[in-house]
Amino acid sequence: MELDGIDGMPSMDVMDEEDKTLQRHCQFPSISKPRINNNDNPTTTSVHELLECPVCTNSMYPPIHQCPNGHTLCSSCKTRVDNRCPTCRQELGDIRCLALEKIAESLKLACKFSTFGCQEILPYYSKLKHESACYYRPYTCPYAGSDCPIDGNIPFLVSHLRDDHKVDMHSGCTFNHRYVKANPCEVENATWMLTVFHCFGQYFCLHFEAFQLGMAPVYMAFLRFMGDESDARNFSYSLEVGGNGRKLIWEGNPRSIRDNHKKVRDSHDGLIIQRNMALFFSGGERKELKLRITGRIWKEQNKQ
């Protein structure tokens, strides 16, 4: 069995009894040396494919199982195939592919978000954990009106919101928005609005929506930062709504768009206006909802 570029594998001349046992009970194809492409590492690519589960196509992590004929699969898939190899239909038993697990221990791979800017080179078994929290992993579209499947970096999402969702774009760190609803007694979970603001070189999403909180209809406004939570803490914002000599004020840090829209809404982390108070702010005639929400965004002085 020839493995190009894999450190730590014993040579055939000095194999001990344990390694011979592994060779007999963990048979898998040798890795041929493909034609070299300037943009690829052929050995790493081949080994990475070898460590891909043929059933779910995800990377395999210990325990890695195999059938008597050497076909491998991950532990999750083993529990779903009724103890039969999905390739040759042999009974799987409880054979561990220890040699393949040893190969994985020797690998170091680039983060899959390298195209987004991550330069980390990671041990195989640390790669999955790193990628789940990688600073450069793409963001999900923050549009709240549908389950939009689009993801990408911030410049891409800003263009996507503007061009595909027709979201209003504004520059500046202050805002003054007026929300009008003809029938204030009708509150639907899908009633919402989104506006994007650009200030301090960053983008922010201002959400306003109506939904049922228990049996009571409420209105809520909150701000999300288009970036990571660690950067969101560098900023603060305030929201104010009022009328008839009364006002409500909210201050806080914007939430990152890493937290999805529903999670922020359900945490009540924003300006919440009960319907009776909203109608009072609107003039008290209970004929039409007219809310004017003002606010501003600022950067904390002690933050870089």
Automatic annotation (TrEMBL):
Pathway of action: Protein modification; protein ubiquitination
Record field: catalytic activity: S-ubiquitinyl-[E2 ubiquitin-conjugating enzyme]-L-cysteine + [acceptor protein]-L-lysine = [E2 ubiquitin-conjugating enzyme]-L-cysteine + N(6)-ubiquitinyl-[acceptor protein]-L-lysine
Domain RING-type: 53-89
Example of a GO cellular component annotation carried by this entry: cytoplasm
GO BP: any one term: protein ubiquitination
EC category name: transferase
Pfam families from the UniProt entry: Sina_RING (PF21362), Sina_TRAF (PF03145), Sina_ZnF (PF21361)
E.C. no: 2.3.2.27
GO MF term set: ubiquitin protein ligase activity; zinc ion binding
Domain SIAH-type residues, every copy: 106-166
Record keywords, A-Z: Metal-binding, Transferase, Ubl conjugation pathway, Zinc, Zinc-finger
Alphabetized InterPro entries for the sequence: 7-in-absentia-prot_TRAF-dom, E3_ubiquitin-ligase_SINA, Sina-like_RING, TRAF-like, Znf_RING, Znf_RING/FYVE/PHD, Znf_SIAH
UniProt similarity note: Belongs to the SINA (Seven in absentia) family.
Name of this protein: RING-type E3 ubiquitin transferase
